[in-house]
């Protein structure tokens, strides 16, 4: 099983989309291994988006992700990183396919509802910013033999 980090960004939380988005992940067969509502500090945001430090939108991105609460989660499942990225859709909501989270709920390139790790290395970097290891729970839902 693979883990991935998901953030419902402040626009997703303020638009009350948290439940609908997590319903999609649960229906798909992903397991919630960790979950919290939290404010992101500027140092956390700068670390999370450190690969974008030299981009012109970096400051705006940090302002945005620290502008209100986010929901952080670790989701687990077979091939979870690629599966969740596909469910999120293209970065620019106005170009994302209908049926994806961004395609259905976003019109923006910055305010695009959700973040999801794009590689195992990114997950290893990102999850530590939001969770302690003991906050990520190991348990079985009991239907894994039907889902896989
Ligand atoms: P993601 O992996 O699809 O989230 O996209 P990236 O890793 O390329 O970018 C990280 C985040 O930066 C995106 O989710 C957007 O919120 C924001 N972003 C990306 N490209 C742009 C841009 O051209 N302008 C602005 N303002 N924000 C951007």
Automatic annotation (TrEMBL):
ATP binds at residues 9, 57, 85, 91, 102, 112. Its cofactor is Mg(2+). SMART domains: NDK. GO terms for biological process: CTP biosynthetic process; GTP biosynthetic process; UTP biosynthetic process. CDD domains: NDPk_I. Keywords: ATP-binding, Cytoplasm, Kinase, Magnesium, Metal-binding, Nucleotide metabolism, Nucleotide-binding, Phosphoprotein, Transferase. One of its GO terms (molecular function) is metal ion binding. Its EC number is 2.7.4.6. Gene3D superfamilies: Nucleoside diphosphate kinase-like domain. GO terms for cellular component: cytoplasm. InterPro entries: NDK-like_dom, NDK-like_dom_sf, Nucleoside_diP_kinase. It catalyses: a 2'-deoxyribonucleoside 5'-diphosphate + ATP = a 2'-deoxyribonucleoside 5'-triphosphate + ADP; a ribonucleoside 5'-diphosphate + ATP = a ribonucleoside 5'-triphosphate + ADP. PROSITE patterns: NDPK_LIKE. Residues 1-138 form the Nucleoside diphosphate kinase-like domain. SUPFAM superfamilies: Nucleoside diphosphate kinase, NDK. The active site is at 115 (pros-phosphohistidine intermediate). Major role in the synthesis of nucleoside triphosphates other than ATP. The ATP gamma phosphate is transferred to the NDP beta phosphate via a ping-pong mechanism, using a phosphorylated active-site intermediate. NCBIfam families: PRK00668.1. This is Nucleoside diphosphate kinase. It comes from Thermogymnomonas acidicola. The lineage of its organism: Archaea, Methanobacteriati, Thermoplasmatota, Thermoplasmata, Thermoplasmatales. The gene is ndk.
